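Write out the 3D structure for:
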Amino acid sequence: MSKIIAVSSKAIRGLTTPQLLKGGLYLTWATSVLLLIAIISGVQSQRQAIKTVGQDSTPSIVTAQRLKDGLAGMDANIANELLVPTGQNQDAVKGYEERYEKTAERLVAAAENITFGDKERKPIETMQLELGNYIAKIQQARDAHARADINATLTAYRAAAEIMDKTLLPKADELDKVNLQALEDTYFDKQVATRKSLFSIFLIGLALIVVLGWLQLFLSQRMRRTFNPLLLIATAIAIAFLNYTAGALLSASQNLRVAKEDAFTSLHALRQARAIAYIANAAESRYLLDPAFATNHEQVFFQNLAKIAQIPNGQTFDSVVEAYKSQDKKVDGFTGYLAEQLNNITFAGEKEATLANLSNLGTYIKIDQQIRQLEKSGKHQEAIALCLGNNPGQSDWAFEQFKATNQKAFDINQAAFDKAIVQGLRDVEGFEITTSVAVSAIALLSLFGLMPRIKEYSI
């Protein structure tokens, strides 16, 4: 190695001044081109990451989750409709129709935003087919219910419920997981790529600044000129643009982090909690509708609620809420989607909305306990009335309160997510043109700064 360095130094000392100046100019151009490539590559990679998270994967994930709560909402409403004589629960009829329309719209939206091929296409196709089968079974249940044929009603509804539980909801989950995995993979890969890009840009930019500085020093020592104004300007542009690029990429990376880790993590947890709450709500109604399988429906209800919020032994919903109000740390033993959300609080108003959501869930569960006590006491009609009631202190009222506070927390995170994605794209907007202009200016200033000195040696 020392021999190679010695030979290289000897070769450089053997070059004439114009040869050294030309070599310095060519080296400036070469590093400028490398810097151009590195910056544009890094910016495009970061832009693609932001678009994948903000415009491809996340909308598909949210659509999949909304499909899930739409489907579960259809089932909950039809169970509520079948609990009372035909025509006596128009709210449930309306709710079922609204949920069906939204589900159909979201299936179309999901089909129009396929990004990952058959991994998305197959679940969507299955849901489109099986939704028709589900609706047909529900219509059979409605027709039998209108005839007051209890056995036929339950037979048709059980068939519909099986389609919902074993096909429609799992396929919505599958669609969610495909896009979630793509988002996680893209986010991790692009964050690593951004760090590598910043390192490359820094090294190449530093090399360019060193070359420009060496040329300035060489001219000062060899040609007795204090400084070369054009080279100084080129050096200043290189330093300023390198700083600007690093700042923009770091800002874009930070906005992507906010969108993914702060906002999206909460969006996903909240939307999952909402969808699973619909499943639990349907199980509550099934418990009253189908006594033969009441124990199974009761288990499904509590299993799903545990996914939303599992309160540690010895505590209540109220005590957990108070603990989070008075301290900014985790409550040991508290798990579920709302626990994940409370451990990821970032934005103004988010904590208050989430705690209200948890408190409303506690209220809903207390009312559910009253429903089960009435049913077990033989007061079936009173249990149904409490289950379907929309007045304060009744089950559907409590469920609507839960949904409202869940939506409030969701909206806070959605606004933060959108803002971070927009700002992240703005950080790297137009960089191809800006970089080309800056690198071209450095190359031209170097040329115009050195050519007069090179010409001095022309014969």
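Residues 17-54+185-455 form one domain.
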